[in-house]
Specification:
Elements (H helix, E strand, L loop, with lengths): L14 E8 L11 E8 L18 H6 L18 E3 L25 H34 L3 H27 L3 H25 L33 H15 L5 H8 L6 H26 L25 H18 L9 H6 L27 H9 L2 H31 L4 H29 L4 H18 L49 E3 L4 E2 L9 E2 L9 E9 L6 E6 L9 H17 L1 H10 L6 H17 L1 H11 L2 E7 L2 E8 L1 H29 L36
Antiparallel strand pairs: 1-2, 2-3, 4-5, 4-8, 6-7, 7-8, 9-10
Helix pairs in contact: 2-3, 2-5, 2-7, 2-8, 3-5, 3-16, 4-5, 4-8, 6-7, 7-12, 11-12, 11-14, 11-15, 11-16, 11-17, 11-18, 12-14, 12-15, 13-14, 13-15, 13-18, 17-18
């Protein structure tokens, strides 16, 4: 292997330094091919080209004798900073295009910023679809297709199951393959999953609400017979599960190969910023999904059809399918430019050469095996690759810390709107919109700020882990805010008796003398707020006998409610459809500290990801991210919502009654919900803090003499490039 050489010759026109790196090839006949990085100044004083060299290595004198501003026939031209020539190692195509179609206009996008833009759009669409639309419309899908809660839970889990199944295969083989092609096909599969998810709307009969104007009042027909509750529509859950499975398959390359592709094609210092922008788009996606999805739910699912119910009615089903059609079409379109990118961007070889290895040093030196260019190209290397990662304690504990953070994020995204809905007495759509407004600045801002801080302070691996530790401790202190809570709005028969007294033994009693003759049933929960600021299970349970033809603030008004007492005048009062508005004085404080918890939880995400990339060998980064995602999803993403959900369910006061079977929870006890949320948050934050501390203590950085292009820093395997690093020209800011 030829070592870096310095050769100078000053003749008034040319000064040349040649760095010649032999590039091992898997093909024996290609052993003579080399990578040559030549920097020089020419009388032309123009940028030089990026081309393909012949197997013979030019001497320094040859490089100086030939004008650097010209190219030989057949070379692909790409402009770089003045005075540097970057040559492809194995004659690979560095132009952007599809096959032989590589028009010059496309080369404007053949940069790291161009890749970042398209990957950001893809991650935005993935977040908006999987973490936004699905969480927003899951209630409407349950209602439309007669699904139980555990069935909708299986639909949500299908995404993580698919990701766990595909991660090892994709990260191992894709990490050593053509990453943009894996990414492009993944986004295309994700788009097909979205279109499939919307398919049941077009293959089923029109939705019939079965509602009349007088349903719900005292003496009216209160519910449908139980025999109509079951239908064959529940079989469509398998279509939804398949759509989610395709979502999981398609998104797998995005957060493994996409991250490493960005990291490989930018300077090490800029890598955290690029990754932060990429993940910020992924965070803004769910926020947009909550907002746009909530807007679509205000449109009736059968567009253009007149219906006599409003969105507040429990029988209403919104247009849940529109978002999936749009996201699916957009994903198919965005996959086309991603498929056109080359295996690596023009000029990226300089970043590989100049990268300083920060990989954890294993005592037995087995980490050096990963520097072999042929390592990881066959299935037989898979067990050894896994073993190398298992021997890296820093990587293992960063994975465990990521799993604890993922548990909190998954729990927050799933039950955050439900927490706001219960604490502040909001409707489901209001809570989803409110949570979206909270996540945009906190989650998106925290994600970008984390990458910015790593770049601003030029943090190395150990410093990055300490930053993660600081963020985790801060969010741990902020989560103590859940010691306080907003009181429940008074609800007759649930939190208090109809006369205002306490419930005996905490048992529910929805029947009183004022509604005993109404024959009210519990099948349909449709809360109303009386003029006495007390909530009732339904208009029937409030003793209301008439429905006003005029709306008040866009809500239906019920008259002659015998259970509602007027504050000033004698006689029955009236009630409005919907929950009573909460006037909790602790609301600003709770929201402020929830913002801090979300901000610092997401603030540590990009630094933790950067530390994972730094603590493993370069050739194992994609595979390491794949293994980390498996650990995070298996220990965090999948069980997280289940753990949070089971704890929150313990605070339920009023359960749905579906023909004698227990359904979902209607009313939670706010004090118990805050207490259980606090316990879950403290447990996972303490575990996360512990894992970051252990990762920091066990991290063993390379010795100081480790240089750019060290044995596990570059594919070229040059170990002593550090002494020549000052000779390379300064790179322009990206």
């Amino acid at each position: 292997m030829a070592m870096p050489q310095n050769s100078t010759r000053e003749n008034g026109f040319c000064f040349t330094q040649t760095l010649d790196f032999s590039h091992p090839s898997p093909h024996p006949g290609d052993a003579g091919r080399t990578f040559s990085a030549v920097s020089g100044l020419d009388a032309c004083d123009t940028p030089v080209s990026n081309g393909i060299t012949s197997p013979a290595v030019p001497s320094p004198s040859d490089s100086c004798a030939e004008p650097l501003c010209s190219t030989t026939p057949g070379e692909e031209e790409t402009r770089f900073e003045e005075g540097i020539k970057y040559v492809s190692a194995e004659g690979e195509e560095l132009a952007c295009g599809w096959g032989g179609f590589t028009p010059g206009c496309l080369q404007l996008c053949n940069t790291s910023k161009g890749v970042l833009f398209f990957l950001c759009v893809a991650s935005f669409l993935q977040g908006m679809t999987v973490n936004g639309f699905i969480n927003t419309v899951i209630t409407s899908i349950e209602r439309r297709f007669d699904l139980r809660s555990y069935q909708s839970g299986l639909i949500a889990s299908s995404y993580d199951i698919a990701a766990c199944v595909c991660l090892t295969f994709v990260s191992y083989f894709g990490g050593n393959g053509h990453k943009p092609r894996w990414l492009g096909w993944g986004v295309l599969v994700m788009g097909l999953g979205s279109l499939l998810f919307a398919l049941p709307h077009f293959t089923t009969a029109q939705y019939e609400a079965h509602s009349a104007a007088e349903v719900g009042v005292c003496g009216g027909n209160q519910s449908l017979p139980c025999s109509q509750a079951a239908s064959s529509l529940s079989g469509y859950r398998f279509v939804f599960m398949l759509g989610q499975f395709l979502h999981g398959m398609g998104a797998t390359p995005l957060y493994t190969l996409g991250v490493t592709y960005l990291d490989e094609n930018v300077k090490t210092n800029y890598s955290p910023v690029y990754i932060a922008v990429f993940y910020t788009a992924a965070i803004l996606g769910p926020a947009a999904g909550y907002l746009v999805g909530g807007m679509f739910l205000n449109i009736y699912t059968e567009i253009g059809r007149e219906i006599g119910i409003s969105p507040e009615n429990t029988l209403w089903v919104g247009a849940w399918w529109i978002g999936f059609l749009g996201a699916g079409a957009a994903s198919l379109l965005i996959s086309i430019p991603i498929l056109g990118y080359p295996q690596r961007l023009p000029g990226s070889q300089r970043y590989i050469v100049m990268r300083v290895s920060e990989a954890h040093q294993i005592k037995d030196g087995s980490h050096k095996k990963a520097s072999d260019p042929d390592f990881g190209k066959t299935v037989k290397d898979l067990p050894r690759a896994v073993l190398l990662l298992l021997k890296n304690p820093t990587f293992i504990f960063l994975c465990l810390a990521g799993a604890t953070e993922a548990t909190l994020i998954a729990g927050m995204s799933t039950f955050g709107p439900k927490f706001l809905e219960s604490q502040f007495s909001l409707s489901a759509s209001e809570a989803a919109t409110f949570f979206g407004y909270l996540v945009v600045p906190a989650g998106g801002g925290g994600t970008f700020l984390g990458g910015f801080l790593v770049n601003k302070f030029k943090l190395r691996c150990s410093g990055i882990i300490k930053l993660c530790l600081l963020c985790t401790v801060t969010s741990l202190l902020a989560i103590l805010i859940f010691f306080i809570h907003c009181p429940n709005m008074p609800m007759a028969g649930v939190t208090q008796m109809y006369d205002g007294s306490a419930l005996p033994g905490g048992h529910l009693n929805l029947t009183a003398a004022c509604n005993a003759k109404c024959g009210c049933l519990q099948d349909t929960y449709s809360p109303v707020c009386g003029s006495d600021d007390i909530m009732y299970y339904s208009a029937c349970h409030a003793g209301c006998k008439k429905v006003s033809e005029k709306l008040r603030n866009g809500k239906k008004v019920y008259r002659e409610c015998s259970c509602v007492n007027r504050t000033l005048l004698p006689g029955p009062g009236d009630a409005e459809a919907g929950k009573c508005t909460s006037s909790c004085a602790k609301k600003p404080l709770l929201l402020c500290f929830m913002f801090v918890v979300i901000l610092f939880t997401f603030l540590s995400s990009i630094p933790a990801l950067t530390a994972t990339l730094r603590c493993v060998s370069d050739r194992q980064r994609s595979f390491a991210l794949g293994i980390q995602w498996i650990v995070v999803r298996t220990l965090g993403g999948i069980p997280g919502p289940i753990a949070f959900g089971s704890m929150i369910d313990k605070s339920c006061l009023l359960w749905q009654d579906q023909c004698g079977e227990q359904g979902s929870c209607y009313v939670y006890q706010n004090s118990a919900m805050s207490r259980y949320t606090l316990i879950a948050g403290l447990v996972y934050k303490v575990l996360g803090t512990t894992f970051f501390i252990v990762a920091c203590l066990l991290y063993k950085p390379p010795p100081p003499e480790s240089a750019p292009g060290s044995s596990d820093a570059s594919e070229n395997g040059n170990g002593d490039l550090q002494e020549h690093k000052p000779s390379l020209p300064a790179e322009e800011d990206i």
